[in-house]
Write a structure and sequence with these properties.
By secondary structure, this protein is α/β, with parallel strands linked by helices. It has a single domain (about 55-365), classed as Ribonuclease Z/Hydroxyacylglutathione hydrolase-like (Metallo-beta-lactamase, Chain A, 4-Layer Sandwich), CATH 3.60.15. Helix content is about 25%, strand content about 20%. The chain has seven helices and 21 strands. The strands form five sheets. The protein has an eight-stranded mixed β-sheet, covered by helices on one side. The longest helix has about 30 residues, at about 1-35. The chain is globular.
Length: about 375
């Protein structure tokens, strides 16, 4: 009888210990999720950018800002060139229009949202260029610089929400001809460039398109990701009968973008956004970006502190290119703006490198997200 009691007692103690260990493990998981290093990290969410097989060549990124050699308050436009020759223009904004000699061929125009400083409701004033803090502008309404560039360059316009329909109409108004949808062949939705006419490429989060030169075997993969921002069309861009006073037009949600180049470079373009959890789970965990272009002007977007946190903690790329600073960020190519200086200081010693987008200065990136011609 005594032995049966002891057996029952020891079995009960073992069960209690097992429960305690299970609760302890759960508590450890909760504790680690609160911000401390987990003992078993998800391999999809590693501390370092995941290495992707590198292809040949470098991706060239050229900022097309308002003042050569500087990073200025209204600078948004970036021109990407894949080693295969595919050229993609991101957010033309106020600093570039269809007559700009810096553009060259533009196979794809991408747009984050329709606010004037991104879609280009105004364009550069060549007679009065203004200053880095306040560049000179003239109206590009009602058609916008984005539509004018696409019409002049026979570009594919790729964006999300209901923005494609809106831009199709603008391009039609310029060309006096309808704007077709872009081709999307096969499993990867491939479109071969150059095109002979502009087209509209619808794309929503979770989908992708691939842009390929006619003689190439590989192309640039484009995907859309969310952005936390507004996306109203200003009244001066809306056709008759127009809008009631105080309201803006609806064209769906804004977006960021992912560009996966043929050499392995994978870039996240934030657009105007605040924090969102997909920066970790999707941008880092699924796409494994190693370069991030982050808008950091504050009030309308992430501020410099928030942009640094997003880079160091959520996205973890090798390199960050700041955008949308809303200040004259450099003088003579040297950082003088308060926001950019704060971002630089916050990224210092973090392992994330800052590359300042000086207008007209082409930077080249290898497949690991490293700028190979930066000082």
């Amino acid at each position: 009888m005594r032995s049966k009691y002891n057996l029952w007692k020891y079995t009960k103690v073992a069960a209690i210990v097992a429960v305690a260990m299970t609760v302890g493990a759960a508590a450890a998981v909760i504790y680690n999720a609160a911000g401390n290093q987990s003992t078993a990290q998800d391999p999809q969410l590693s501390q370092e950018p995941t290495e992707i097989a590198q292809g040949p060549g470098t991706v060239k990124i050229t900022p097309l800002g308002s003042h050569a050699g500087e990073f200025c308050g209204q600078d948004r436009a970036l021109l990407f060139e894949d080693p295969t020759g595919v050229r993609i223009l991101w957010d033309p904004g106020f600093t570039v229009d269809e007559t700009d000699e810096r553009l060259g061929d533009v196979h794809v125009v991408m747009l984050s949202h329709v606010h004037g400083d991104h879609i280009g409701s105004s364009k550069p004033n060549r007679q009065n260029p203004g200053t880095c803090a306040a560049p000179g502008l003239v109206s590009a309404a009602p058609n916008t610089s984005t539509a004018a560039i696409a019409a002049a360059k026979n570009s594919a316009v790729i964006t999300g929400g209901e923005m494609p329909q809106f831009l199709a109409r603008k391009i039609q108004n310029i060309r006096n001809a309808g704007t077709p949808g872009c081709p999307a062949a096969g499993l990867s939705n491939v479109m071969t460039v150059p095109l002979t006419t502009p087209c509209i490429g619808f794309l929503q989060p979770g989908g992708s398109r691939t842009i390929k030169m006619s003689e190439a075997t590989a192309g640039v993969k484009i995907a859309i990701v969310p952005a936390t921002h507004t996306n109203g069309v200003a009244g001066n861009l809306v056709e008759a009968p127009g809008l009631p006073p105080g309201l803006s037009g609806y064209v769906g949600p804004p977006n960021g973008a992912i560009l996966k180049f043929t050499n392995g470079l994978t870039a996240y373009l934030s657009g105007d956004t605040g924090f969102f959890s997909d920066m970790t789970t999707i941008v880092r965990g699924y796409y494994h970006v190693n370069l991030a272009v982050i808008n950091m002007g504050d009030t309308f977007t992430l501020g410099p502190d928030e942009a640094a946190f997003a880079a160091k903690t959520l996205i973890r790329p090798r390199t960050v290119i700041p955008s949308h600073s809303l200040e004259a960020s450099t003088t003579g190519g040297i950082i003088t703006g308060l926001r950019l200086a704060r971002l630089r200081d916050e990224l210092d010693h973090s392992g994330v490198r800052l590359v300042v987008p000086l207008s007209g200065m082409t930077r080249e990136f290898n497949g690991r997200g490293v700028c190979i011609n930066c000082q």
